[in-house]
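Continuing the series of single-chain predictions for the mutant panel. This is the parent chain; the variants come on the following pages.
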Amino acid sequence: MSDSQRFPVAAHALAYLAHKGAYDPGHAAASAVLAASVPTNPVVIRRVTALLAKAGLIATRPGASGGSWLLRRPEDIRLDEVLKAVNGCAHLGSPPAGAKGCPIGEHIPRQVGKVLTLADQAASDALAKITIADLLADNAPALAGVVIHGSCSEAIRAAEAAPA
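Parent structure:
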């Protein structure tokens, strides 16, 4: 699974567990059930749930009668915690090293690194205001006014096609 899919899969899995009332081992959701909801492979779910368990957001039990359940209420699980658990940060990339002896090559990587740090902090700050409960709510205040847009590549293509 690519790094870019860990966070969406983790958020989906946590929302599913909350929706199904999986708050104890007796109500645990099997990885195959979570995988069917995403949809993805159960192995992908097990990798993500292992990271979520390591972060203390869920507990898991292996085996045929195993599964995952929440350790906290959905309104107490912030999405910045989820991102940190599965990705560490937004990770928009790393600046290239730059060429030695080139004034731009020696300067720009440091500046791009600062920009990436700012972007990561902005993403974390935005996600800190949203909980798993917000994902389940039809009219969550934390998501009010947010308009879903296409992928970045679609936006770039549209901008390139627009008359100058």
